[in-house]
Amino acid sequence: MKVLCLDLEGVLVPEIWHGIARATGIETLKKTTRDIPVYEDLMRLRLDTIERHAVTMETIRRTIDGLDPFPGADAFLAWARRRFQVAILSDTFYEFAMPLMAKLGFPLLLCHRLVVEDDRIVGYRLRQEQAKAASVRAFQSLGYEVVAVGDSYNDIDMLRAADRACFFRAPDRIADAHGDIPRFETYDELMCAL
Amino acid sequence: MKVLCLDLEGVLVPEIWHGIARATGIETLKKTTRDIPVYEDLMRLRLDTIERHAVTMETIRRTIDGLDPFPGADAFLAWARRRFQVAILSDTFYEFAMPLMAKLGFPLLLCHRLVVEDDRIVGYRLRQEQAKAASVRAFQSLGYEVVAVGDSYNDIDMLRAADRACFFRAPDRIADAHGDIPRFETYDELMCAL
User: Fold this and answer.
1) A8, A85, A98: best to mutate for the B interface, most B CBs within 10 A
2) pTM of the shown model
3) Does the complex come out with an ipTM higher than 0.85?
4) Would the CB atoms of B1 and A94 count as touching at under 8 Å?
5) The predicted structure's pLDDT at residue A34
6) CA distance B160 to A52
């Protein structure tokens, strides 16, 4: 029995901040870890932007309620949960992700927390530094081989820490920079590889 | 967000070896960690017994397919998964537990493996020593507070390692020996306490 560590956004569900960008019409919020590799820089930009545009948590919540997992993600996850112990390792926040977790049947999710005051996001609390890689190493310390699947800059440490790694729908510039990690574009390909 | 670590047998599902004892009519297989505190002693007795009675893996598999989670376990787990990240920590084996996991919607399960040859269980592989307590500490190392629920001797280390602990339907002699750990008898009580 192996542990399968899956990134969330870009692998199972759309980028949540893209959804917020579309719903609010704020272009800046389309930036992701694919564009800005340092997570703290990206989050500062996001929080400054939503503060400037006075976007409430309620608006964001309604937007996220309207998001759905990618077509095929549910079937892929059902397949994976019969063969692996599945953990979703994400740099998103429980406040954002839980409605999507409900749609995916509540797999284990290890991510971060937001600080919300008076319906405004005023900050965030990273669970720990390099949380994804630390989670991989924690499962390894429990005697598990870990297979990891990600798509972006913030997944590289996780992919490098894992016993086996795959890119899923990674942008060329990220996948090309790590040419030793195999890349897949469809859930069918991924299932064959796993 | 906290991690809720739940024992499996006695908390969510019946004792699997009890089911095997009933199906095969072998009384000795009714012994559990509640009767024999040292897990290795218990497992040696079980494996010797099924070898002596020539019980096949196929017989055991059919028996387990017929087991169901406790009434209310599914609703309790659905409640828990909306409020916690849930991990099942068990000293059972994936070969036994996966049909029951399917009935519970595949929560994360950390347990052990059997060694099966020619349809006979010839051994078992503990993932690590004190696997339940090690799993609690692994989640704590990732920045989570851990709440643990168990019922038996092999849960004590897990309950002691956790930030908060409850007994669920524990025998008096175990609960009384650890009187500082609150005990509950129904899922409703447990939900109120959690």
Assistant:
1) A85
2) 0.94
3) yes
4) yes
5) 73
6) 47
